[in-house]
Design brief:
The chain is an alpha+beta fold. It is 22% helix and 21% strand.
Length: 68
C-alpha cells in the first residue's frame, strides 16, 4: 500500500505530516507531500489512517501498490 496526496485538494493544514512524519513532509508553502515512494509499512499503517481521517479536504488516501 502507498499513501498519496491530491495536491489540488490540499490546503496546507499540516495534519498529515504532524501525525505521520515518517510518511509525509511539507513543501515551501506548508502543503503536505509524500516522502519517497509513499510505501506504508505495517508499523506505519495506523499513522497513515490517522492522517487520512484528520485531513479536512480528504486529500490523503491509501492506494494499492501497483508493483505487487
Amino acid at each position: 500500500m502507498r499513501v498519496a496526496i491530491d495536491t489540488s485538494r490540499c490546503q496546507g493544514h499540516g495534519r498529515c505530516y504532524d501525525l505521520a512524519p515518517s510518511l509525509f513532509t511539507d513543501d515551501y508553502r506548508g502543503h503536505g507531500i509524500v516522502i519517497d515512494d509513499g510505501i506504508v509499512s505495517e508499523a506505519e499503517m495506523e499513522d497513515a489512517r490517522q492522517a487520512i481521517r484528520a485531513c479536512p479536504e480528504q486529500a490523503v488516501t491509501i492506494v494499492a501498490d501497483s508493483d505487487s
